[in-house]
Amino acid sequence: MNAFIYAAGRAARLGDLVKDRHKMLLEFGGRSLLEWHVLRLKEAGASTIHVITGHQRAQMSAAIHAVATQHKAQVVEIYNPDYSEGSVLSMAVSLRKLESCSPFALLLDGDVLYDTRMLRRLIDSPHRTALLIDRGYSAADDDPVLVPVVGGRPVDFVKRWRGEADQVGESIGFFKVDEADIPALVRETRSREKGAGRMDSYDDVLRALVHRGIFGHEDVTGIPWTEIDFPQDVDYAKEKILPQLLKPND
Fold first, then answer.
1. Which end of the chain is more exposed for a tag (fewer CB within 10 A), N or C?
2. What is the pLDDT of residues 169-212, one digit of tens each?
3. Count of domains forming the chain
4. Does residue 250 lie within any of the structural domains?
5. How many distinct helices (H) and strands (E) make up the chain?
6. In-domain check, residue 90
7. What is the domain-level CATH number for residue 217?
8. What DSSP string describes 145-172?
9. pLDDT > 90? residue 249
10. What CA–CA distance (Å, rounded) separates 249 from 237?
11. What is the CA radius of gyration of the chain?
């Protein structure tokens, strides 16, 4: 099983917290966000973990090597030299590896601290291609990507969604894409590699696939997790989420 962690961006909203280091190297309980990802993915059965880098590449390359060595994990860097443009280009540089994945690939936002149960729910989903949602979201301090569900299927994937739906959840930023659906992901990404499309987000690619009805969903409401976007998210992760993740042997 192959996993892809997208971590090329600058994380400007974290301000001075990332002045001299990459967001993925922020520490929680003595481990970097990168290390937590590797541990959780190994626990879930990932054989190869691809990390898409860009900003502060030298730091990330060194950290990837150190974490891979320490945990005897297969962690591979994929560099996006155009990381200052749209994040769709991070998806683009990973396509060659994605095209060879079987039976599916996991795609993960890099800035999430989470419980391994989320990965298990995604991997074990009866939907061949699936995303995760949390119905317990709040838009008070952030602008989450929302996933409205109608008739048991996601019908959109967008911020500031308004409309009628059976339920609405926040996207965790984790996706399982079956090998049969990877060509659609590739085509949608390739169509944005030139011109104005280069400034698109890879969320735009995922939204297009949701609109085509490719994605099912799994509800992970109640499983601890948080996205690290703002300084207050770091405090929340340390004070509220980390205690729920730590085990006696962690």
1. C
2. 999 999 999 999 999 999 999 999 999 999 999 999 999 999 99
3. 1
4. no
5. 9, 14
6. yes
7. 3.90.550.10
8. EEEEEETTEE---EET--S--SEEEEEE
9. no
10. 20
11. 17
Residue 73 token pair:
């994990």
> HEC states along 61-126?
HHHHHHHHHHHCCCEEEEECCCCCCCCHHHHHHCHHHHCCCCCEEEEEECCEEECHHHHHHHHCCC
How many Å apart are CA 131 and CA 39, to the nearest integer?
Answer: 21
179-197 burial code (b ≥16 CB/10 A, e <16): bebbebbbebbeebbeeeb
> Which residue, among 226, 225, 209, has the nearest Cα to 217 in the 3D structure?
209
Which residue bears the tokens 């989320």? 118
Instruction: Provide the residue type at 151 as one letter.
Output: G
Largest Cα–Cα distance in the chain? 52
Q: Which residues face 177 on adjacent strands? A: 105
